[in-house]
User: What shape does this take?
Amino acid sequence: MREKTNEEKLAEFEERVGRGQKVEPGDWMPDDYRKNLIRMISQHAHSEIVGQLPEGKWIPYAPGFRRKLTLIAKVQDEAGHGQLLYRAAETLGKSREEMMEELLAGKAKYSNVFNYPTPTWADVGVIGWLVDTAAVINQTMLAQSSYGPYGRAMKRICYEESFHIKQGYDAIVALAKGTPEQRTMAQDSINRWWYPTLMMSGPPDSLSVHSQLAMKWKIKTKTNEQVRQEFVDHIVPQIRALGFDVPDPDCRFDETLGHYRYTQPDWEELKRVVNGDGPCNAERLAVRRKAHHEGRWVREALAAHHDKQSKNAAA
Ligand code: COA
Assistant: This one.
């Protein structure tokens, strides 16, 4: 039988994806599909492990044993999410070592939101509540991704992230019911995280480089704008119900649209932050490099163990 041409393979691929069938690692896929997925999944994996840092620094100072335990569990979960996602990216042919080198060399992107400081305990609550809500809304969409390993990783991650939202919300509710100083601290944190969280869903469709192709091949099933609007519609009533303000005087429900209107973030700021010039990029990478250096002996021990097992199996 004659070998199919690339055009025929592409047409079959698009037909399968159109029918909602999942693409699996050994399947034929267009180069741009593979490249786009590696780009997105590796950035996502980096976000998980860099995302451990802003909250991780609060573990020693968490108010009380119960909050300390839940925070430790949450930060540990993020390492597991990184592990799942690096594994999913590896199925597309890029090694974990290569992805890690790019991150540590400052060449790889990761979520903008983890480049902002966490000066108060309220930031731990607000990250869990606001940032993780935005993440879950995006990731619930990505769980439908056409690439099987990515979608399956997302499902597992969303279960755990939903617990993270509860952890953050619970911490904020305690502050909301607390002293005037505690309420002020929570409001200040909401004010600082509002726009970075809106930016998390990516630039508007007119500025998004990859959305069109990603939507065509169902890597994503919603645009950045749709995801952001879903987040705003979900979170604004919650913020107000706790007696806090949304730091946007123009944020109001539009009866005709059936959605909240809101002020767009500063997209130049997003560009700067994701390209290495945010308030904490240098600090985050320095901590990751240190952790990578200190973990070298573990990687070497595991590799030696693996070699020994392979030799025994071959003997
Ligand atoms: N943080 C960091 N980089 C971002 C970003 C953000 N919030 N939003 C956009 N970018 C980057 C994109 O990665 C892309 O960079 P690249 O071309 O160098 O790879 C560029 O800005 C243009 O954006 P766009 O064309 O819209 O990219 P996209 O279609 O991949 O959409 C995301 C951006 C973040 C919405 C998308 O990649 C995504 O959903 N990723 C998985 C989820 C994730 O990483 N979450 C992290 C927090 S848990």
The mean pLDDT is 97. The radius of gyration is 21 Å.
